[in-house]
Design goal:
InterPro entries: CcoP_N (IPR032858), CcoP_N_sf (IPR038414), Cyt_c-like_dom (IPR009056), Cyt_c-like_dom_sf (IPR036909), Cyt_c_oxidase_cbb3_su3 (IPR004678), Cytochrome_c_Oxidase_Subunit (IPR050597). With about 300 residues, the chain is mainly α. It has helices at about 30-50, 70-90, 95-100, 100-120, 120-125, 150-160, 175-190, 195-200, 205-210, 235-245, 265-275, 295-305; strands spanning about 15-20, 20-25, 160, 260. The N and C termini lie far apart (about 90 Å). The structure holds heme C (2 copies).
């Protein structure tokens, strides 16, 4: 104990003692004191130079006039200035022209990733592959309900889409439903028999899915002749679709399959152009534009590239 002196300077204590530990009156080291005062000085200088004291609606500005929001805005302006030449050309050119221009194409695809992530990935999944069973179409294949040309995709995005397959629960007997499930499965493998085709035609399926059962793009009716499923190739799921349809307001068990509209103004214009009419006459003034035309063009190009470009 004796040679383990905890108080070599014989410094007086403060009179405080806990469990044999005495509090001494040693001053803190000089470097420490200097650092303490310097840091106090720093705070003071910072207070004068930068925005600091909170007021009711605002704060003091500081001598430098710097602010975080200004710095952000400057950075943003710099990025926008770099992007402007590309954005302007994309706005002026048609989507088909952009597909032919390697540089613009790369820019459009690159700058759409965030747009896609913010607006589309929640339903269609990262990279156009939705989680299995989520009920959203895969965008990363070359199988399209409404058409895979870049202009058809623009139309899909602008207008939104809503498939209409009515519920058949009240229209078919159990045997007929069994027969049609059998047809859909056999036909997906190219093995449907004449009797199965007859049932398909008799029950009115051909009216929407086409005489060849390959689907009709104007209606968005699924292709029943391949093994790419809009919903599922499981017999029970096929049965569910036939019995309850999609988006059928009269059937509570119907599948909900609605693609939201992103730019109604553009949708009106596409429609008017198709009929050679003046879109101005069709605008009602309350068209919702959740994405700009340029954003839609870029996204359509991105989706088109995902699908391998049909
Ligand atoms: C709320 C969910 C939802 C969101 C968000 C959504 N979609 Fe869709 N989308 C759907 C559904 C459902 C369909 C299928 C509609 C149908 O079955 O008739 C669809 C269909 C499509 C189609 C047509 C596919 C085909 O085979 O023809 C494209 C292209 C598409 N979406 C792209 C997008 C893009 C790009 C975005 C982002 C701007 C987006 N979607 C946002 C639900 C969504
Ligand atoms: C009024 C038009 C219409 C009629 C009639 C119709 N369908 Fe459909 N069907 C559709 C549409 C549209 C879709 C795609 C729905 C979607 O993607 O939102 C569809 C989807 C399907 C699917 C899902 C395919 C997949 O890939 O998951 C099956 C199966 C199907 N129909 C079978 C039938 C059968 C069998 C009949 C005859 C009893 C029939 N449909 C009658 C319009 C119709």
């Amino acid at each position: 104990m004796a040679d383990n002196n905890k108080n070599p300077n014989e410094c007086p204590d403060t009179g405080h003692e806990w469990d044999g530990i005495r509090e001494l009156t040693n001053p803190p080291p000089r470097w420490w004191i200097i650092a303490l005062y310097l840091s106090g000085l720093m705070v003071f200088i910072y207070f004068i130079l930068y925005p600091s004291i909170p007021l009711v609606n605002d704060s003091t500005d500081g001598l430098l006039g710097w602010s975080q929001i200004d710095e952000y805005k400057e950075g943003l302006a710099e990025i926008e200035a770099k992007r402007a030449p590309y954005e302007n050309r994309i706005a002026e050119m048609s989507a088909e022209e952009i597909l032919q221009d390697d540089e613009l194409l790369r820019y459009a695809v690159g700058s759409s990733k965030v747009l896609y992530g913010d607006n589309c990935a929640a339903c269609h999944g990262v990279g156009g592959i939705p989680p299995e069973g989520a009920g959203y179409p895969i965008l990363a294949d070359d199988d399209w309900l409404y058409g895979g040309s870049v202009n058809k995709i623009i139309e899909t995005l602008a207008k939104g889409r809503q498939g209409m397959m009515p519920a058949h629960a009240d229209l078919l007997t159990t045997e007929e439903v069994d027969g049609l499930v059998g047809f859909v499965i056999s036909n997906s493998m190219g093995e449907a028999t004449d009797a199965q085709w007859k049932l398909y035609n008799e029950k009115g399926c051909a009216a929407c899915h086409g005489a060849d059962a390959k689907g009709v793009q104007q209606l968005g009716s699924a292709n029943l002749s391949d093994r790419i499923w809009r919903f599922s190739g499981e017999p029970d799921e096929i049965r569910h679709t036939i019995l309850h349809g999609v988006n059928d307001a009269n059937d509570p068990k119907t599948r909900v399959a609605v693609m939201p509209a992103w730019n109604e103004k553009l949708a009106v214009r596409i429609e008017a152009e198709e009929y050679g009419d003046d879109p101005e006459e069709y605008y009602e003034g309350d068209e919702i534009e959740r994405l700009t035309e340029t954003e839609i063009k870029k996204l359509a190009i991105y989706v088109h590239q995902l699908g391998g470009g049909e």
